[in-house]
Amino acid sequence: MQKKIPERMCVICRQMKPKSSLIRIVNTTDGIVVDKTGKLNGRGIYLCRCRDCVEKALKSKSFVKQFGFTLESVAEILESAIEQ
Q1: What is the Cα 67 distance to its own chain's centre?
Q2: Each residue of 45-71: pLDDT tens digit?
Q3: Neighbouring residues of 66: CB distance < 8 A, sequence distance ≥ 6
Q4: How far apart are CA 68 and CA 72, in angstroms?
Q5: Where are the domains of the chain?
Q6: 3-state secondary structure string, the chain?
């Protein structure tokens, strides 16, 4: 029996992809954090590791309305995550 691979949806392009191929950003009590382990507590969102999705997320004002936080504080971390 083959093990099921968990999938999540990118909040920008709305495509389902394997969880391991996405970047998870969490709104914790300490602020906005890029979750490299995928196990941090807090509300999390997933982004593709492509430049288009990250740039659209950084420009989008809907993040404040929908998720209650902006991504400017983790912009540098997101840029480095794309290139890995």
Answers
A1: 12
A2: 899 999 999 888 888 777 677 777 777
A3: 11
A4: 13
A5: 7-82
A6: CCCCCCEEECCCCCCEEEHHHEEEEEEECCEEEEECCCCCCCEEEEEECCHHHHHHHHHCCHHHHHHCCCCHHHHHHHHHHHCC
> 9: pLDDT confidence band, cut at 50, 70 and 90?
very high
Residues 27-44 have pLDDT tens digits of 888 878 888 888 898 878
User: Under CATH, which architecture does the 7-82 domain have?
Assistant: 2-Layer Sandwich (3.30)
- Answer yes or no: pTM beyond 0.90: no
Structure token digits, residue 63: 């993040």
Q: Which two tokens stand for residue 51?
A: 């430049």
